[in-house]
């Protein structure tokens, strides 16, 4: 039986096709807060990666107060992992930039605990990532993991990624990070305008945003914006070859399946921006609790 995915009404209001074709709503001068939004910026590609540098420049130019707290090195694929070592190395190479020798989750927690000690940021932005975080890739993504860490501590968060389910072209993907951040600024502006003095997102809800690479050079404009869910497929297929010496050679192939209707893969494949709500726990929808309750009814230890 096909599962029905229901998006929260608050998110549906935010993620409409009009967002791509209309200028962002803005608060009136009389109601706009005096101080700019304070953003903790992180990623999983490392603090020197082109995606986070583009994000830092664009968000700062848009008037936000941005502080980067990101991994020292590439941490792609680390998911929600946290370091359990008794100490961690942290560098402060530039003003407003901190580099944490750990995972995206480590960077976010350090940022919330130390850099923003005493006053949490208004928003955590993770990305933009080089390549997609669609379908099953999102589950294991360090970009998404950084956003999840923020949600666990009660801070609104957005994960940003650039690319579709194909082997990324380096030049086109880097070029597409510009349009990704142009959209991100519009999205954050709208969140800010709708929230007023309240929280930017419903409690416990984050957004996983995937922007396509449009055109051969990646400089094209997306066809629109879709509110989506995470496609349940796992598009990467690992293969193991016995080397005969107790080790196995590992290779991974991209084998996407037909896209689920209304999912993030379908949207990005159509050159649309996918905006998927997410939370920081593993709970499923309310409709799933009934069958589980029936399953365990009468069972005893």
Textual characterization of the structure:
The chain is of the alpha/beta class. The protein has one domain (9-296): Stationary-phase Survival Protein Sure Homolog, Chain: A (3-Layer(aba) Sandwich), CATH 3.40.1210. The protein is 30% helix and 22% strand. The chain is built from nine helices and eleven strands. The protein has helices at 9-14, 18-21, 50-61, 104-115, 135-139, 142-152, 170-195, 264-269, 289-296, and strands at 38-42, 65-71, 90-94, 97-100, 123-130, 157-162, 206-211, 224-227, 236-242, 248-254, 272-278. The strands form two sheets. The chain has a nine-stranded mixed β-sheet. A two-stranded antiparallel ribbon has the order 9-10. Helix 3 packs parallel to helix 7 and helix 4 runs parallel beside helix 6 (142-152). The longest helix has 26 residues, at 170-195. It is globular, with a radius of gyration of 20 Å. Mean pLDDT is 89; it is low at 1-33.
């Amino acid at each position: 039986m096909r599962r029905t995915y229901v998006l929260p009404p608050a998110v549906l209001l935010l993620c409409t096709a009009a967002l791509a074709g209309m200028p962002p709503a803005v608060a009136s001068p009389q109601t706009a807060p005096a101080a700019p939004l304070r953003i903790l910026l992180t990623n999983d590609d490392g603090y020197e990666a082109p995606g986070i540098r583009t994000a830092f420049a664009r968000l700062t130019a848009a008037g936000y107060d941005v502080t980067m707290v990101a991994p020292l090195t590439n941490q792609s694929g680390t998911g929600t992992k946290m370091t359990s070592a008794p100490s961690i190395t942290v560098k402060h190479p530039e003003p407003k930039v901190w580099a944490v020798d750990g995972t995206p989750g480590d960077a976010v927690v350090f940022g919330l605990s130390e850099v923003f000690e005493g006053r949490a940021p208004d928003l955590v932005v993770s990305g933009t990532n080089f390549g997609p975080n669609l379908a099953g890739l999102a589950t294991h993504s360090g970009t998404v993991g950084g956003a999840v860490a923020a949600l666990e501590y009660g801070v609104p968060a957005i994960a940003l990624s650039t690319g579709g389910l194909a082997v990324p072209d380096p030049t086109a993907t880097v070029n597409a990070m510009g349009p990704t951040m142009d959209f991100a600024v519009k999205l954050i502006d709208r969140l800010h305008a709708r929230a007023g003095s309240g929280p930017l997102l419903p409690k416990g809800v984050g957004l996983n945003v995937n922007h396509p690479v449009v055109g051969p050079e990646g400089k094209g404009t997306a066809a629109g914006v879709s509110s989506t869910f995470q496609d349940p497929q796992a598009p990467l297929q690992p293969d193991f070859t016995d080397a005969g010496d107790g080790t196995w050679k590992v290779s991974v192939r991209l084998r996407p399946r037909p896209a689920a209707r209304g999912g993030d893969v379908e949207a990005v494949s159509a050159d649309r921006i996918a905006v998927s709500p997410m939370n920081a726990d593993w709970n499923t929808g309310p409709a799933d609790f009934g069958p589980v309750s029936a399953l365990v009814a009468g069972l005893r230890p």
